[in-house]
Structure formats: structure tokens, C-alpha cells
Amino acid sequence: MKEANKILCPSSKCKPGSRLLGVRQDDGTVAILPSPLDIDEKFISKVNNDDIRPEQKFRFTNKCIENGCSQWTGKSCGVIEKLVSYLDVLPVKEALPECAIRPQCRWFRQSGVDACKVCTFVITEVTEQDNSRAASTA
Fold first, then answer.
1. Could you give the angle at the alpha carbon of 61 between the alpha carbons of 83 and 90, nearest 5°?
2. Which residue in 30, 110, 125, 33 sits closest to 66, CA to CA?
3. CA 80, CA 113: separation in Å to the nearest integer?
4. What is the pLDDT of residues 39-88, one digit of tens each?
5. Which of 68, 48, 57 is nearest to 22 (CA)?
6. CA dihedral in degrees (49, 55, 56, 57; nearest 10)?
7. Which DSSP string corresponds to 43-57?
8. Do 19 and 84 form a contact (C-beta atoms < 8 A)?
9. SS3 content of the chain, % helix, strand, coil (to 5)
10. Whole-structure pTM over 0.90, yes or no?
11. By residue range, what is the domain housing residue 84?
12. What's the number of domains the chain is made of?
């Protein structure tokens, strides 16, 4: 198996083959599950059945598709490159969150522990309301 096929995206879409990685909390951060959970068509149908996109409520993981992703810069993930630049303004904790995918995580492989420090602040699908809330707390 090609090495890239083993690398996981920690911010994938809710689709067949994805696994549930985390759940958004009331404070807007994401609680990473001790182990990703398999999802099925029934789950996907249920969470796609309301006004809020699943990626606003949950984080999913799936294989990193590199050039098949709009966030791929040609050599790396552009998402984590941008996110680590916010480390100095985020209330990060020194202790890294528990994470079952860390050894295969694209972000960790690319940015090391800095990726882990920002990970719980990442919402895959951000709304205008999320942007307004973030601006009011900055």
C-alpha cells in the first residue's frame, strides 16, 4: 500500500468511508474521541437531515487525498499551515489532547505538536455565526 494512503485527514467531510473523530462542544472547541467511530449510511442520513451541516457539529477523519483536495498546496496541507499561525492567540494547553490517529495524521506529520495544539479549535465547516462569535472573543 502506498504510504500516502495511510495518512489521515483530521478534518474530512461526512461521507462513506469517513470515521467520527470528534464532537463540537458548547464553547466551540472539539472534543476528540478516544478512538474514531465507524459511521454508516444511517448515521450520515440522520446528521444530514437538519439545517446544520454535519461538519459544523462533528469532525470526521478519512484518508488524505492530497491533490484531490482543494486545500492541498501541491506539497502539503494548506489548512494546518494557516492554523498554526494562530497559536499565539489561541488559549492552547501544554498537554496535548489524546488522539488515536496522531501517528497517521496529516497535520501532525506536517506540523508536529503545533498541529495538535490547534486541533481542538478546528471546525471543518465554519458559518458566519461562527465567524462573528470568534471576532467578538478576539
1. 25
2. 110
3. 12
4. 999 999 999 877 889 999 999 999 999 999 999 999 999 999 999 999 99
5. 57
6. 70
7. HHHHHTSSSS-HHHH
8. no
9. 40, 20, 40
10. no
11. 3-137
12. 1
